[in-house]
Amino acid sequence: MATSRSAVFFFAALSFSWIACGQADAKMANLSPRRSKHPVLALDFKDNGQRLAARVGQQIEITLGTIGPKQYGDPQVSSDALKLQNVAMEWPPNPGGPTFIYIFEATCEGEAQVEVPIIKSMDNPELATGLDFRVTILVGPAAGRLSAMQVLRRPDQANTAPWTGAWTSLFNVLRQTFTPSLPRLSGVEVEMALANPGPKSADLNLTVTDKEGVTLAVVSKTIPLDDCSHVLFILPRGGLAVSPGQVYSIGLSSVGSPLGWKYVVGGYPSGDASFNGQPLLPDAHSTFLFRTFGNKLNPTR
Question: How far apart are CA 124 and CA 103, in angstroms?
Answer without folding.
Answer: 29
